[in-house]
Design a protein that fits this description.
elongated; six-stranded mixed β-sheet; Aminopeptidase; 2 domains; nine-stranded mixed β-sheet; 18 strands; alpha/beta; 19% strand
Length: 510
Amino acid sequence: MARKIISTTVKTKAAAPVSVKSDILAIGVFSDEGKPGKLAGQINKNLKGAVKKLLALGDFKAKCGSTAVIYTDGKIAPARVLLVGLGQRKKLTSDCIRKAASIAANTAVTLKVATITVALNQQLPAKISPETIGQAITEGLYFGSYRYDEFLSASKDNRLDSLKCTIVDDAPEKIKAMSKGVKAGTIIGKAQSYARTIANRPGNIINPPKLAAQARKVAKADPSLTCKIFDEKALIQMNAGGILAVGAGSASPPRMIVLKYTPKGAAAKAKKPIALVGKAVTFDSGGISIKPSAGMEEMKFDKSGGIAVLGAMKAIAALKPAQTIYGIIPSAENMPDGSACRPGDIITTMSGKTVEIKNTDAEGRLILCDAIHYATKQKCEAIVDIATLTGACVVALGKYMAGLMGNDDNLIEQLKAAAKSSGDKVWHLPCTDEYSEDMKSGIADICNIGKTRWGGAITAGAFLKAFVGETKWAHIDMAGMDMFSSKKHGSEGSPGYGVRLLTAFAINYK
């Protein structure tokens, strides 16, 4: 039986931080202030100079991400004080606050404690609103407390099943001002944790039909969501040649999942819808163009774009924006049996365009092109797709941000703004006609890889661009952002990249 993921709850309380009984009190410290701030100074006085002594030793310099623990010996209500570095005050951003909260929660789980009070909101610059601070802290607490260990025997460790977090401030008006952000942060934090769990599950646990079942559960939980599943028979009737070709070699048949969020009110419903489209290859062997065996187990994360859309739709439905939004998730398993598509095959996609397949490991774009065409048929005003699409994007940008490209400057700017506020970083790449020329085939309308190895992330985007018509479109290549390879972030595996980004984009779309 699968073990339950840690349950995290976040609430607020108007109280003096040192008076709230808890296992840990987390406070922020700036690196450029020379002396403890007001709250740290109060704690220092109560603990007879312990904070100043620690700072004088030089072990804790308050750089962003650094921590130090002080045991209080009953002198104040919390059993421990966790100093969390915020870096330089002048450089503080909402993402720094989010990361600090994540580190605090991660420390709490590592220490196997049940409760944490958080006072990172104390004495922050006025340029960051209380609502933003509340949301950032809450998202960070969910992120840092997450562990993917549902298939570990409970006897292997002694970790607790839950973490109770309380954001505290001795000024009731500040707590009230943060409350809206805490509510939104809770919705998004839970959705991101859900997405991380589904993304982390291996191919024998999550295949296309089982992913479709998860989407049905998400839709059933909120009346503003509907879910339509297109099985292989329906996909054949729709001429979805891209999805069918990728899934042809697997015993698990492909699916196209369509979630739809419908807002209340005639004015909101009258707006043209937008679409979020996410690649969900539940396991990618490469097909006949098979991948090397080393690291192939990580190909369970090739569904991460689709999972980001699923998580975002879960959050969007709870946040209730005044905009109709589709979440479209084409899903297949790319395997190399006797029915698999071959290099050299020519397929006909849902749009009617033909594609020459030169490499079966360039499969993500084949399922995305059908889903993008479906979105255009729903008369969507804008389409944003997200996918672990190319290793070339990792070569270009490393594992620090995703590649962003598209055909509309305003849409790109909205996504960049969403990236800045959410902390899910992107970098704008070109996608001009020169790259489209590289995708031409002599025997079909388009080829699924470029003529050369150069600019592979962009030529993949150019392939998708061929299927959007006149619709505003943007593509996010999140390859490299789909997994952590170490436990320094708390839990290795999926970080749930894209959930915060797509949610922020969708609820602020204009």
